[in-house]
TrEMBL record:
PANTHER family: GANGLIOSIDE INDUCED DIFFERENTIATION ASSOCIATED PROTEIN 2-RELATED, MACRO DOMAIN-CONTAINING PROTEIN. It comes from Streptomyces laurentii. PROSITE patterns: MACRO (PS51154). Residues 4-183 form the Macro domain. Gene3D superfamilies: Leucine Aminopeptidase, subunit E, domain 1. This is Macro domain-containing protein. Coiled coil: none annotated. It comes from the Bacteria. Pfam families: Macro.
Length: 183
């Protein structure tokens, strides 16, 4: 008789975390996560780069989402998948980070972006997911804190299919902040 796992329903390990310095649109992960805005219709930063390089098919899918379930836009902290168009990925998962506030603690919403993106990726059966540092650009989140929330949230997740999570950091300070957060 062949060996069986002691408990097939036991929770899996957290995915392996990897840091990469570079442009997320160069990644060949199954899922690239887009730091979008609630319109889903594009913008600057990661969003601009993903739409530019992924081509019109992504925007067409986003328009279909807006015409359907997301008529009012994608709420902050949620995530939704589209095609990856011409990118070397299978899907783009769009999520909307919170705008940083000095007076209000919005960190639960930022954690939700990572958790929900992983959930959607897992539902798709993705094995690898590449994240940018959500909210740390136009939305003003301090990089050290954004990195801490990203790492803590992904470490707490137990997706079934996602075995590798890459954080793709655009510059040296972002990479250094994630190194500190990884410990
Ligand atoms: N690859 C990896 N990281 C990048 C790239 C790239 N190609 N480009 C920028 N970054 P941001 P947000 C880094 O502004 O703060 C858009 O207009 C960047 O240095 O892309 O969530 C949307 O439409 C920063 O550390 O996203 C929204 O309106 C991080 O990615 C709004 O910006 C996130 O920066 C979302 O703002």
């Amino acid at each position: 008789m062949s060996a069986q796992p002691a408990d097939a329903s036991a929770p899996t390990d957290a995915p392996t975390l990897v840091l990469v310095r570079g442009d997320i649109t160069d990644q060949d992960a199954d899922v690239l996560v887009n730091a979008a805005n609630s319109s889903l219709l594009g913008g600057g930063g990661v969003d601009g780069a993903i739409h530019r390089r992924g081509g019109k098919a992504i925007l067409d899918d986003c328009r279909r989402l807006r015409a359907g379930h997301y008529g009012r836009g994608l709420p902050t902290g949620q995530a939704v998948a589209t095609t990856a168009g011409d990118l070397a990925a299978r899907w783009v998962v769009h999520t909307v980070g919170p705008v940083y506030s000095r007076t209000e603690d919005r960190s639960a919403l930022l954690a939700s972006c990572y958790r929900e993106s992983l959930r959607v990726a897992d539902e798709l059966g993705a094995g690898s997911v590449a994240f940018p540092a959500i909210s740390t650009g136009v939305y003003g989140w301090p990089m050290d804190d954004g990195a801490r929330i990203a790492v803590e949230t992904v470490r707490a997740a137990r997706p079934a299919s996602v075995r590798e999570v890459r954080f793709v950091l655009f510059d040296a300070p972002a990479y250094a902040a994630f190194e500190v957060a990884l410990g």
